[in-house]
Specification:
Blueprint: E1 6-11, H1 17-26, E2 30-35, H2 40-46, E3 50-53, E4 79-82, H3 84-92, E5 97-112, E6 125-136, E7 144-148, E8 156-159, E9 164-167, H4 179-190, H5 199-214, E10 219-223, H6 227-240, E11 244-250, H7 258-269, E12 273-278, H8 280-287, H9 293-315, E13 320-322, H10 327-334, E14 358-360, H11 368-377, H12 382-385, H13 405-424, E15 433-447, E16 450-463, E17 471-472, H14 477-490, E18 494-499
Parallel strand pairs: 1-2, 1-3, 3-4, 4-9, 10-11, 10-13, 11-12, 13-14, 16-18
Antiparallel strand pairs: 5-6, 5-7, 7-8, 8-9, 15-16, 16-17
Helix pairs in contact: 5-6, 5-11, 6-11, 13-14
This protein binds xanthosine-5'-monophosphate.
The site of xanthosine-5'-monophosphate (XMP) has 14 residues, from loops.
């Protein structure tokens, strides 16, 4: 990768910022999101080949509206302003904006002026996604308009000589039909970048960096068996071999055979130092009589950290604590402040009593799809790399009411059958998350000639790209029928099965 093959995304608070970054990376160009008020010194040091201004919730004339350093325009680096970004560029360069007659929201027909490099190869008329109340009125000197919609004569503006471009619509949103090509034109034709950000290149570079940083030091990592911690472990292990020790806390709330699979793949195939703490009973004791979902989560989170600390104390002082933090975690924790719906205790939460000097987070700049690609690159098996998300508190939030060993055993068997049938139906890549929930409700049934009074099991399947919103998966009836028949026949104490048909919101993905 050449030194300057990178794009800077200046964040003005828009809701699609992560999406812009993903789209850029999908085009094979490395990018990072930084706050709008990043200093010029830091920007110069980052040395971007192109800059994108995101949209944002403010209006440019508002008091305290976010502005970047005007010196950005003097760097000679191409800039693409999106929505608020376009308006801000206009204002900062001497143009004006005004409220339109009509507030545009949603799909709009876009016509462009075909001589613009930004629109090269783009159909003259296409659909774009708009969301704004004000738009550019008088252009700054040297600018021309390059696209319009029915209600917005300045849907795109540009000063090609200075390589400054602005679009009022959102090219990053799927509904903008030609959005990908427009972004490609900006990256490849205007910034002169090429598609060279690959996981093979990243892997080489990251391994080298980890080696340099760690030297002869020792690294400790909490392995959960999830995609992120497993890929982080594989990467660090390739860099520093057995200087890495992984602690795998088996809290007994994992799915069927999961603990053994993790131990087998990572311990045997990858030959890592793994300490498996079999503390199932300890967690069950702590959870005895607890029914409140938040309390369950808190107990598990705290206990997890305690076990991790105890195990690490046995190893002695380490130099580095490794975590599988990924880019959306970094960006989201740095920005939005939303209400706590559920407290997440992710494996890898920071322990208070582990003796280490520094944290290493080798996936900190990667999106989930990149983490998966890196995992495959490092030789991790598909079954691990393509695992669906699994909550830190595990099956505890899928057994409603009090958790007992018996209930966990019932749920584990039922969930395994559901997952097996989804895989048999080749739906496992289409449904983003699917699992069984053991409700706390019992009802009357009949089996043979006998009356039964047993549990109701719920099946859940969701389709989503970000897990912040989700739709329930339309699993074919014949698949559901097969799952239902198999579970009631093969798993004792379940005599009724329901399928959850609520989306998120108003429901959440997990039941607790
Ligand atoms: P909810 O239930 O909040 O779930 O709609 C959204 C996604 O987050 C996962 N989830 C968790 N992941 N620790 C995690 O690492 C947790 O405590 C946790 N709780 C929920 C959930 O499985 C879904 O993918």
């Amino acid at each position: 990768m050449s030194e300057r093959s990178r794009v800077l995304i200046l964040d003005f608070g828009g809701q699609y910022n992560l999406l812009i970054a993903r789209r850029v990376r999908e085009r094979g160009v490395y990018c990072e999101i930084k706050p709008y008020n990043t200093t010029m010194e830091e920007i110069r040091q980052f040395a971007p080949s192109g800059i994108i201004f995101t949209g944002g919730p403010s209006t440019v004339y508002e008091e305290g509206a976010p502005k970047c350093d005007p010196a950005v325009f003097e760097m000679g680096v191409p800039v693409l302003g999106i929505c608020y970004g376009q308006q801000l560029m206009t204002l900062m360069l001497g143009g004006t904006c005004k409220a339109g007659q009509v507030r545009e929201y949603g799909k709009a027909e876009l016509w462009h002026n075909s001589s613009s490099l930004l629109f090269e190869g783009v159909r003259q008329q296409s659909v774009c996604w708009m969301s704004h109340t004000i738009s550019v009125d008088q252009l700054p000197e040297g600018f021309v308009t390059s696209a319009k919609t029915k209600d917005c004569p300045t849907a795109a503006i540009e000063n090609p000589e200075r390589k400054l471009y602005g679009v009022q619509f959102h090219p990053e949103v799927m509904h903008t039909e030609e959005g990908t090509l427009i972004l490609e034109n900006f990256l490849y034709k205007i910034c002169g970048l090429s598609s060279e950000w690959t996981m093979a290149a990243y892997s080489k570079q990251a391994i080298e960096e980890i080696r340099q940083k760690v030297g002869n030091g020792r690294v400790l990592l909490a392995l959960s068996g999830g995609v992120d911690s497993s890929v982080a472990a594989a990467l660090i292990s390739q860099a520093v071999g057995n200087q890495l020790t992984c602690v795998f806390v088996d809290h007994g709330l994992l799915r069927k055979d999961e603990g053994d699979m993790v131990e087998k793949i990572m311990g045997e195939k990858f030959d890592m130092n793994i300490i498996r703490a079999n503390v199932q009973d300890r967690f069950l004791t702590k959870l005895q009589g607890v029914t409140d979902p938040e309390q369950k989560r808190k107990i598990i989170g705290e206990e997890f950290i305690r076990v991790f600390e105890e195990e690490s104390r046995k190893i002695g002082a380490v130099d580095f604590l490794a975590q599988g933090t990924i880019y959306p975690d970094v960006v989201e924790s740095g920005l939005g402040k939303s209400a706590v719906i559920k407290s997440h205790h992710n494996v890898g939460g920071l322990p208070d009593h582990v003796d280490f000097k520094e944290i290493i987070e080798p996936l900190r700049l990667l999106f989930k799809d990149e983490v998966r690609a890196l995992g495959l690159e490092l030789g991790l098996p598909e079954e691990l790399v393509w695992r669906q998300p699994f909550p830190g508190p595990g099956l505890a939030v899928r057994v409603i009411g009090e958790i007992t060993a018996d209930k966990l055993a019932i749920l584990r068997e039922a969930d395994a059958i559901f997952r097996e049938e989804i895989a048999n139906a080749k739906l496992d890549r289409d449904i983003n998350q699917y699992f069984a929930v053991l409700t706390n409700m019992r009802s009357v049934g009949v089996m043979g000639d006998e009356r039964t009074y047993d549990y109701t099991l719920a099946l859940r399947g969701v389709v989503t790209s970000d897990f912040m919103t989700a739709d329930w998966a339309r699993i074919p009836y014949d698949v559901l029928e097969k799952v239902s028949n198999r579970i009631v026949n093969e798993v004792p104490h379940i005599n009724r099965i329901v399928y959850d048909i609520t989306s998120k919101p108003p429901a959440t993905v997990e039941w607790e």
